[in-house]
């Protein structure tokens, strides 16, 4: 039976959403498969892109899927099953945001985590799948034109609040606000990528690998 949507139930849902989001799947899987600390290779990021570079495409895709599921579970389970709140409610948006914050600032890693893209996508799917589909289409088009994963992620993040507003309008302000905050977080977490793109140092997908030991984003 779901908890009542009182202060205790809401607080418990938010804490659990944060803890679900804070599980560092990239760090765990790369250590299991390669026996290395993902934070010491490539960009040092614990997300799917760096995991793919460090341990191969299957591991990178697995990390993306698990990080994606963190965001979905935060909304569907922590807000939906635990408290009984629907997907287009403020609590659902808050739980999704809590999971993204958990991924970006995990307590287990001294608050140094990933960039939150996959987890944010999972949360948006639980809120409204079409918002994610629209953002995903923007990601694919941007990646195809630029071959920069970072730029594609930024463009997708900016598309999310526009799609959320189009889908819900004034009757669903919470998803739009949540998507806007996600877009802001994606921009902040991709500052280094933007700097390298402006300098011409950002690696592109399908490009020739760089020399061993050279830092990548």
The average pLDDT value, as a whole number, equals 87
Separate helix tally = 10
Strand content: under 5%
First-residue to last-residue Cα separation: 45 Å
- Strand count: 0
Number of domains: 1
Estimate the global geometry from the Cα principal axes.
globular
- What is the alpha-carbon Rg in Å? 17 Å
Q: In which range does the helix fraction lie? A: 55-70%
Order of helices and strands: HHHHHHHHHH
Largest sheet descriptor? none
Low-confidence stretches: 211-217
Structural class: mainly alpha
3D structure, described in words:
The protein has one domain (7-199). Helices cover 69% and strands 0% of the residues. The protein is built from 10 helices and no strands. The protein has helices at residues 7-21, 25-34, 48-55, 57-83, 90-104, 117-127, 129-146, 149-168, 173-189, 191-199. Helix 2 packs antiparallel against helix 4, helix 5 (90-104) packs antiparallel against helix 6 (117-127) and helix 6 (117-127) packs antiparallel against helix 9. The longest helix has 27 residues, at 57-83.
Summed up, what is this model?
The chain has 10 helices and no strands. It is globular, with a radius of gyration of 17 Å.
């Amino acid at each position: 039976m779901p908890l009542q949507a009182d202060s205790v139930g809401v607080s418990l849902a938010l804490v659990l959403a944060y803890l679900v989001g804070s599980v560092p799947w990239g760090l765990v899987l790369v250590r299991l498969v390669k026996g290395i600390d993902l934070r010491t290779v490539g960009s040092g990021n614990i997300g799917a892109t760096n995991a793919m570079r460090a341990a191969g495409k299957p591991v990178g895709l697995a990390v993306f899927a698990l990080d994606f599921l963190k965001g979905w579970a935060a909304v569907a389970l922590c807000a939906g099953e635990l408290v009984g709140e629907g997907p287009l409610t403020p609590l659902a948006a808050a739980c999704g945001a809590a999971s993204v914050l958990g991924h970006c600032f995990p307590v287990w890693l001294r608050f140094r985590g990933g960039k939150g893209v996959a987890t944010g996508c999972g949360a948006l799917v639980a809120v409204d799948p079409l918002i994610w589909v629209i953002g995903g289409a923007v990601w694919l088009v941007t990646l195809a034109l630029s071959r920069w994963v970072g730029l594609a992620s930024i463009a997708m993040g900016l598309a999310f609040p526009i799609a959320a507003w189009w889908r819900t309008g004034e009757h669903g302000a919470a998803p739009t606000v949540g998507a806007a905050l996600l877009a802001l977080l994606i921009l902040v977490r991709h500052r280094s990528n933007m700097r390298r793109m402006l300098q011409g140092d950002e690696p592109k997908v399908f490009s020739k690998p760089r020399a061993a030991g050279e830092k990548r984003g």
